[in-house]
Specification:
Radius of gyration: 30 Å
Largest sheet: 9 strands, mixed
Subunit structure: Heterotrimer of A, B and C subunits.
Protein name: Aspartyl/glutamyl-tRNA(Asn/Gln) amidotransferase subunit B
Family: Belongs to the GatB/GatE family. GatB subfamily.
Number of helices: 16
Helix content: 25-40%
Strand content: 15-25%
Number of strands: 14
Keywords: ATP-binding, Ligase, Nucleotide-binding, Protein biosynthesis
EC number: 6.3.5.-
Distance between the termini: 85 Å
């Protein structure tokens, strides 16, 4: 087997212009499947959520899920699409072991949502990704290849098929070619997938969990020589299942295709697989054209004709979308562009907003989530929202700081206790004895002791070197295990020595 030459990324971009396209599949979070009443819960025992309809047994007839249609219309409207007044389903014919009917009910030349766009920001520059179509179809089952080193069919000893996923409502969002991105191409692709995931999540129509397959991206890449006018042959990297991998898959294909073309080879139109461990793609199968699927209208389903009144009702029900929400909170919280980006990337927007709702100011809420708690999440390798601490508990800790019952150092110990499962903030404070020393007499006694034990430093303060009082404050904090009010301790020291 020949080894393909890979060209360095910067050299590839100097010689070629990339053209991207992204097809995203999103499973809707409906209670039942697209054309039958089977449940859709993730992780059930194999082949326990099936019936004659989703198994494609003879004589079974599909019925369209209204909730799924409402879900796709919400997505289409949020993507600035036109909702057509009439459309219908089609049969897309091809054979896979995990396709029970040997055809997929989908939409072909008459999709439900068309001509939209989604704006994304990369390094302060806005790129408009045009949406060609958003259409509805049903998901397939899932094959499990047993044996071998890769988990793929090649080298496997045998394969098993789980049809639980077959028939789950699946929305496909197809972009138009994304051009003029230059060396930002991988980042634009990732930014688009990120923004799309946040948008769909805000609509509450899918959990868009890429690790569970409820959002999957097919990444199309082609290259054309600088100055040329005709696009090159594209490849389609299938089922990319993380935002980072979307970026890496684009970069990998740019480097690979540039190497092939520079060696005088040609790009084959095919599907490819992305490998996380190597960051490279490998060949899958030749890519069929639309005519190869032998589409024809689905005879068992009536066409859909969503009324304008109903579409307007759905439009009115849309929540605040992510871009508008970011603009709002940036102003309300007083964030710079960089600070806003960090908050969004950390997945902290909802957590900070909920903490504010419990009575904390925006600055304090952001401080705890983005510093102390974010560090714990990174160390544990989990998302910020997965930490065993709630916005209400963060607000309670800040309330104790505001009341003078805790300082920042003690608050960090409280969070450590909460994260360790020691109880609520109040319970941790009681168990660990963490409250600030607020008794004036007790604090004054500690100050006197510190002055007596540090006579040399005290003499410097008496001589007018006020900055030396910092060492005495530190000694007070050490003597009280960090539980003294540092500001009041400093005041007492200066009162006694100046």
């Amino acid at each position: 087997m020949s080894v393909e030459t890979v060209m360095a990324y910067d050299e590839a971009l100097a010689r070629f212009e990339p053209v991207l396209g992204i097809e995203t599949h999103i499973e809707l979070g409906t209670a039942s499947k697209m054309f039958c009443g089977c449940p859709t819960g993730f992780g059930a025992e194999p082949n326990t959520q099936v019936c004659p309809v989703c198994l494609g047994l003879p004589g079974s007839l599909p019925v369209t899920n209204r909730a799924a249609i409402e879900g796709i219309v919400k997505i289409g409207l949020a993507l600035n699409c036109d909702i057509v007044e009439w459309c219908r389903f089609a049969r897309k014919n091809y054979f896979y072991p995990d396709m029970p009917k040997n055809f997929q009910i989908s939409q072909y030349d008459e999709p439900l949502c068309v001509d939209g766009y989604l704006d994304v920001d990369v390094d302060g520059e806005t790129y408009r990704v045009e949406i060609e179509r958003v259409h509805m179809e049903e998901d397939t089952g899932k094959s499990l290849h047993v044996g071998g080193a890769t988990g793929r069919i090649h080298g496997a000893e045998y394969s098993l098929v789980d049809y639980n996923r077959a028939g789950i409502p699946l929305v496909e969002i197809v972009t138009r070619p994304i051009v003029a991105t230059g060396d930002k191409a991988p980042f634009v692709a990732r930014a688009y997938a990120t923004e799309l995931r946040e948008l769909v999540r805000s609509l509450d129509v899918s959990d868009v969990r890429m690790e569970q397959g409820s959002m999957r991206c097919d990444v199309n890449v082609s290259l054309m020589p600088r100055g040329a006018s005709e696009w090159g042959t594209r490849t389609e990297t299938k089922n990319v299942n993380s935002l980072r991998s979307v970026e890496r898959a684009v970069r990998s294909e740019i480097e690979r295709q540039a190497g092939v073309l520079s060696d005088g080879g040609r790009i084959v139109q095919e599907t490819r697989h992305f490998h996380e461990e190597t960051g490279r793609t490998t060949s899958g199968r030749s890519k069929e054209e639309a005519q190869d699927y032998r589409y024809f209208p689905e005879p068992d389903l009536v066409p859909m004709a969503p009324s304008r009144e109903w579409v307007d009702e759905v439009r009115a029900s849309l929540p605040e979308l992510p871009a508008a929400r970011r603009r709002r909170i940036q102003g309300e919280w007083g964030l710079s562009d960089l600070e806003l980006r960090d908050v969004v990337n950390a997945g902290a927007v909802d957590l900070i907003e909920a903490t504010i709702a419990h009575g904390t100011d925006a600055t304090s809420a952001r401080k705890w989530w983005m510093n102390q708690l974010s560090r714990h999440a990174t160390e544990q390798g989990v998302e910020l929202a997965e930490l065993p601490v709630t916005p209400e508990q963060v607000a309670r800790v800040q309330a104790m700081i505001t009341a003078g019952e805790l300082n920042d150092k003690l608050a960090r110990s409280v969070f450590e206790g909460v994260l360790a499962g020691e109880g609520t903030p109040d319970e941790v404070v009681a168990k660990r004895g963490l409250k600030v020393v607020s008794d004036e007499g007790e604090l004054a006694s500690v100050v006197d002791q510190v002055i007596a034990e540090n006579a040399g430093v005290a003499d410097k303060v008496r001589a007018g070197k006020v900055a030396a009082a910092g060492a005495l404050v530190g000694a007070v904090m050490k003597a009280t295990r960090g539980q003294a009010d540092a500001g009041r301790a400093r005041e007492l020291i200066l009162e006694k020595l100046t």
